[in-house]
Amino acid sequence: MDRPSTHQVPEGTVAAPSAGVEAVPAPTHAECARTIVAGANRGSLSTLAAEPAGYPFGSVVTYALDGDGAPLFFVSLMAEHTHNAERDPRASLLVAEAVADGDDPLAAGRVTLIGDLGRVPGAEVAGVRARYLAANPNAGYYIDFGDFAFYRLALRAVRYVGGYGRMSWVDARAFADAEADPLAPVAAGIVGHMNDDHADALVLVCRHQGGRPDTVQATMTGVDRYGFEVTASSPAGAGRLRLGFPRPVTTSEEVRSALVAMVRQARRLSAEAPPRS
Fold first, then answer.
1. Whether 8 contacts 155, CB under 8 Å
2. Which of 4, 62, 138, 154 has the fewest C-beta atoms under 10 angstroms from its C-beta?
């Protein structure tokens, strides 16, 4: 069966993209995937079971990342997934974005890291131990247990899903070279502040800089170093809209300055626009 390349959305439920609006910079899928994985320390590890032979075996694990973004685990030598990996190193780790109560988990991002699970060489253990404890401080009480060991998932492929209609295979080298978004730790606060206190400003920006002059309601849904995403609603329907910052930003203060400048420009454009009939 052929695999569809896009979702088949019913007519009238999503506004069509506006003509004449240039594409704006956005994180690559490698950057998106790295951000999701770097923003968590827990996932679902799948190994190939010894019994029943060859079936996927899922385990909840905690992890840290090495400098190339490869997951590092501290696992019990008695654990089933450890025995599985010793027989067959092929494994994967699924990491998903946190989802607020009531939100659709399938609209959130997730990453599947695929590779070979092997024991960390003794010469690297001290550095891996420090990384693991930094990411999982509660492991301090068992970090010196003799029946545990450090393992690394050497990546071969990465599958990124950013919600409905956003997905791709990411080259393992591209994932290793990508940087997690610096705004990830503060993004939720920025989004909440804009929606709670500046919803009218978002409408202006969508109308005059986003090519959606009929926007009557706008909700920011995400922000990153390159720009932000909004759900813009109009009589024609609701559509996802991306707007770019004049230059990449790395702090919440830089985001504030960029947004203030964009809103000021939108207000000038609004004052200069002829009255709508």
1. no
2. 4
